[in-house]
From TrEMBL:
<dbReference type="GO" id="GO:0046872">
    <property type="term" value="F:metal ion binding"/>
</dbReference>
<dbReference type="InterPro" id="IPR001279">
    <property type="entry name" value="Metallo-B-lactamas"/>
</dbReference>
<protein>
    <submittedName>
        <fullName>Ribonuclease BN (tRNA processing enzyme)</fullName>
    </submittedName>
</protein>
<dbReference type="InterPro" id="IPR036866">
    <property type="entry name" value="RibonucZ/Hydroxyglut_hydro"/>
</dbReference>
<dbReference type="Pfam" id="PF23023">
    <property type="entry name" value="Anti-Pycsar_Apyc1"/>
</dbReference>
<feature type="domain" description="Metallo-beta-lactamase">
    <location>
        <begin position="21"/>
        <end position="208"/>
    </location>
</feature>
<dbReference type="GO" id="GO:0016787">
    <property type="term" value="F:hydrolase activity"/>
</dbReference>
Length: 246
């Protein structure tokens, strides 16, 4: 039977990418469309995939960097003043202060001299115990290891699909997860102190785990590294890639 739920890659480039949009995704199911991150390229990337803001019912944020949250400003304004909607925002409590006080408030916090709150734009659902439900799906928020002293999360959907968000290699985490298909942050051509590198992933994870992983958040010039992706990993994620969820 064809699954009714799909996980879709909206963008798969690193923060500098001109070719692959921000590393954002979308879960489409009976409850609606849940974006996984909403970066500064989100509106254009969604448009290329046939979506507009009116199709976005909810957003989950992995961490507070521009390629993952700056699109929220546009979603907030257009939802409130153009669409008259208030999308759901699933948020880990540890991200709340950075997201509102230090990121969005400067733009969204004042309308005609009146102070605004995050809840004036979004139906904020703070996540309890790293888990929430969306439609028929159980989504676990998985703490990952991105930048020092910065909270960051991946997600695990129904013990079937793992999506790392931005992270370095996390063998102590990933080896304790059950999943069939994964999407994992990977620098390929360049080294970064806050992202997993292709070689580090290959060294840190068992080969059967690597074979389940599509690499994402890669550089525009990844081909320069001349790595044999398909021999080691499931492949490269690409914009529009869809995974049917059971
Ligand atoms: Zn990041």
């Amino acid at each position: 039977m064809q699954s009714e739920s799909q996980f879709k890659i909206i963008g798969c480039g690193n923060s500098e990418s001109l070719s692959h949009f921000n590393n954002n995704a979308l879960l489409a199911c009976s409850a609606g469309n849940l974006m996984i991150d909403c970066g500064h390229t989100a509106k254009q990337a969604l448009h290329q995939q046939g979506y507009s803001w009116s199709d976005i019912d909810a957003v989950y944020i992995t961490h507070v960097h521009g390629d993952h949250v700056f699109g929220l400003e546009r979603l907030a304004f257009e939802s409130r003043f153009k669409l008259n909607t208030r999308p759901t925002l699933f948020l880990e409590p540890s991200l709340e202060v950075d997201l509102w006080e230090h990121t969005l408030k400067g733009s969204l916090g004042n309308i005609n001299g009146e102070r605004q709150k995050l809840t004036d734009y979004f139906d904020v659902k703070l996540i309890s115990e790293n888990s929430f439900r969306y439609g028929p799906h159980t989504i676990r928020s998985i703490p990952v290891d991105h930048a020092p002293d910065k909270a960051a999360f991946g997600i695990l959907i129904d013990n079937y699909l793992f999506y790392s968000g931005d992270t370095k290699a996390i063998p102590e985490v990933i080896n304790n997860l059950t999943f069939e298909i994964g999407f994992h942050d990977a620098s390929i051509a360049d080294a970064s102190p806050v992202h997993a590198h292709f070689d580090a992933l290959q060294a840190a994870y068992p080969s059967d785990v690597c074979k389940k992983l599509f690499l994402m958040s890669y550089e525009d010039n990844w081909q320069l590294a001349n790595k044999d992706i398909r021999g080691v990993f499931a492949g490269l994620a690409y914009q529009g890639q869809m995974v049917a969820l059971p």
